[in-house]
Amino acid sequence: MERKSFLDQEPPPGYVAGVGRGATGFTTSADTGPVRFESQFGGELADGADAQEEGILAQTANKSREDDEADRIYEQIDHRLQKRYKKRSGDQVSADSAGTVEIPTGTGAIQQEFTLLKSELAQVSMDEWASLPEVGDLTRRNKRQRLLDQQQQRTYAAPDMLISSAGSGFKENASNTTVVAENDSAVKLAEIEEWEQKSALAGDLEKGRLVLASLRRAEPYKADLWISSARLEEQARQIHQAKILISKGCDLIPHNDEIWLESIRLHRSEGTKVCKTIMSEALRLNSQSEKLWFAALQLENPGDVTSRRKVVMKALEFLPRSVNLWKFLIDMGGTNEEQMRLLTRATELCPKEWDLWLTLVNISSYSDAKAVLNKARKQLPNEANIWITALKLEERENLDVSVEKLAIMFEKGRKELANTLSLRVPQNWLEDAVKAQEEGFAKSSQAIVKCVLKDISVDDELDQLHALAASHSLTSPMISSYIQQFICEVQPLVINNWRMLFGLLKSDIPRLYDMYEKAMDSMPENEIVPLMYAKDKWILGSDVPGARAILESACKVMPNSEKIWVGRLKLELRNHEFTRALTVSKESIRVPSTSSPRLWYKHIHVLRYHCKRKPGQIAIENALAASKEALLYVSREP
């Protein structure tokens, strides 16, 4: 067996061998000091003396009689004191002395008090005394307990079914645990971020205070610094300090309206009365501030029209040329006479504001409105809206006014604007036309487009006009139709231009019919236009008699057109007018110039239908005869 290394090493200080097994320590001279030996000469060597010393330092002499006498006296005094103490304490001293254990040692007696412990030992039963372990059995008892614990922790193999059934629950628990952990992590991260933001905000607030305080000392009459300082304190929720700062700013810069507005905003929590007091002082010092007057209006009750009107009228005393105040006063309403009176006064004081003139025109009668527009022309010679408004006024009052008359008026206005060097590009005029169309003034819009497009050479810039029409086809189809109509009027013999126009006018049926009539007048011998006209009349307008009349009229103008005869026949068949269809087919084959294989084919089909469905009307022999005649006609064709 290998020898342990600690057996050859020095023991640590205070080590007592066997103390873990209950061994008791003992006292040696190392603990009590050097032992005093009796001299062979009958005396003890003094502590620390050398036995070989001689002379006055020699310790071989006996103690003096005085020393012995002193020792004896001290012993007697100690003995008497002990007796006196025992008498005074009585039985208590006797009991205490009975419970005292004296252990004699080389240096004296070590006393340990066991009184309380011995009294508690009386309550220990015999079984408890018997179950006390032996001193040397501690290690063995711990080993037995360890072996017992190992036996109780045995593991056994579990069946596969148990593992598989527990697996799903484990996955669910794991997923739930993951979700909870993620949520907890998100919450913790949010809390950390919030804490960091608050910490950063606190540091920024302190820095901001120092910087703004330094700037205020450098520039005490700059309103932005006082406003920024107050808002910084408001952000730090120091509302009282913010009010103090803004009040100081108002005292230093009383003629700045922005700082007064900020003061009113900060004092909103104290009620309207306090804000009105501040506003009165602010208006006394800044009566020319439009912002302060509008802020004063916000302090009034919205339902109290009288008070708000008084505030506006008071403001107009100081700011009579304020357009915004006049507009606000007019928007508050009133009778028509009051509105006209206010607008008349407003246009006198603010003659360069077109919106005031326009409002006055809209509430005036026809004659008064024309007079107002004439005044506006003198005050605003460069304003193009005056002429557009004149067109709308004329269309509103005269529903039968023609586009040509409106175009003449507009052309006059354009010339006057050109004389004042107020030139506008066609795109701007077209935007005005779009607005007029959206407001319901279709004729005015068309007149504007017609006049504007006259400046463009159609022969040289036809592609530009088509591109302009295409650009408005989605956003403003009517404007695109006006442009296309202008192209058709300039080039009336180009059928493709008319087709594009007809496609744009599908939603405006009356105007579509009007354009068809103009196209037929421009191209009376074009067979496509009446066919398209009849089709739209039939499908869009549900007017079969009208479509029939169009085709009959076209057939008289163009009796040799096969397409028109086929169109007439198709119209009757689709509308189940088989008798009319038979009549039309007979007419078509009796005209030598129009008789064709296609028309004979249609005629025979009509006869077959009558033979099957209406056998009493036409005999089968007639159908066969018509078929033979058709074959002869085809055989005669070159």
UniProtKB/TrEMBL annotation:
Q: What is its main location?
A: nucleus
Its GO biological process annotations read: spliceosomal tri-snRNP complex assembly
Which segment of the chain is annotated as a signal peptide?
none
> What Gene3D superfamilies does the database record attribute to this sequence?
Tetratricopeptide repeat domain
Superkingdom classification of source? Eukaryota
Single GO cellular component term: catalytic step 2 spliceosome
Q: Does Amino-acid biosynthesis show up as a keyword for this record?
A: no
Region ranges (Disordered):
1-38
Q: Where in the cell is it found?
A: Nucleus
In this protein, which residues make up the domain named PRP1 splicing factor N-terminal?
11-141
Output the InterPro entries linked to this UniProt entry. HAT, PRP1_N, Syf1-like, TPR-like_helical_dom_sf
Q: Does the keyword Nucleus apply?
A: yes
Keywords carried by this UniProt record: Nucleus, Repeat
**Name of the protein in question:** PRP1 splicing factor N-terminal domain-containing protein
What is the protein's species of origin? Answer: Metschnikowia pulcherrima
